[in-house]
Amino acid sequence: MPRAKVSTVVLDAHDAQELADFYVRLLGYEVRREEPGWVLTGPADGDGVSLAFETEPEYVRPVWPTRLPGDQQMMLHLDVEVDDLEGETTRAVAEGAVLADYQPQDDVRVLFDPSGHPFCLWVETEE
Q1: DSSP structure string for 30-78
Q2: Rounded CA gap, 99 and 4, in Å?
Q3: Of 8, 30, 41, 66, whose CB neighbour count within 10 A is largest?
Q4: Which spans of this chain does the record mark as coiled coil (predicted)?
Q5: pTM above threshold 0.70
């Protein structure tokens, strides 16, 4: 049986470089490859999922949570585990993220990146 694995998640944006720069700062990733309208980033140690960003001139920001029929729905979101939820939330906002108005859980912070993609910062909690 052939082996398959997800190696890269690609996010569309109005400006691939701007969004790549945000995630490089947020995650400590490095740029691995660039082409006009496309940037590949990943962890410096090579261990983990790469993120790529593609310029899409007709990109429409998603709405989360969806409010009305016909809203552009989010198609995915990234979960980012952190040690210090409040500190990393503050840092993410300083880097250009926007804190969502609706926060469904105490151990998770929902934010939007500069292109409007939702992502979650979360911290391991003891049960």
Answers
A1: EEEEEETTEEEEE-TTS-S-EEEEEE-TT----BSS--STT--B----E
A2: 35
A3: 41
A4: none
A5: yes
User: Taking a C-beta distance cutoff of 8 angstroms, is the pair 123, 85 a contact?
Assistant: yes
Residue 37 tokens, joined: 């309208």
Contact 118, 62 (CB under 8 A): yes
Sheet containing 38-42: order of strands? 8-13, 50-55, 38-42, 30-35
Q: How far apart are CA 101 and CA 82, in angstroms?
A: 20
- Which of residues 7 and 75 earns the better pLDDT score? 7
How far is Cα 113 from Cα 118, in angstroms, rounded to an integer? 7
Domain annotation for the chain: domains and CATH numbers: 7-58 (3.30.720.120), 60-127 (3.10.180.10)
Element containing residue 18 per DSSP (H, E): helix 16-27
Give the chain's end-to-end CA distance (angstroms, integer).
38
- DSSP secondary structure letter of residue 119: E
